[in-house]
Known about the structure:
Oligomer: single chain
Order of helices and strands: HHHHHH
Number of helices: 6
Number of strands: 0
Amino acid sequence: MRRTAFIVSALMVVTCGLTAVAGPAGAVDDKATCAAFNEAWTDLNNRLGALGGAGSFSELREIYLDTAGELRVVADAADPGALKDALNTAAAHLSRLETATNLDDFDRVMGDPALTAALDVAGTPCGL
């Protein structure tokens, strides 16, 4: 009987522990999310400015792929909601540049209305 009680108790501890770990612990509010988003966007603009001109396609693509990664990190830490969803959407669209092989591919990704809409949804509450 004690052994059964011990097993049930151990299962409860494991289950409760897993539930606690799976929860939104550590998520940050929209203000902190916006600060991180603004930082990522400033970094993007600084890197684009450092190209000093047209730059190479591979450099340009790499800058935007890095930004996609930064947006994914910001979204992962964000509270659930419209801002988090918009950041995830923007990161997903920018990640499509992974398969871009030329400027036409690049322009197709960057000109996608869904990317523009996601950046608008994320940028508006964050002052961008």
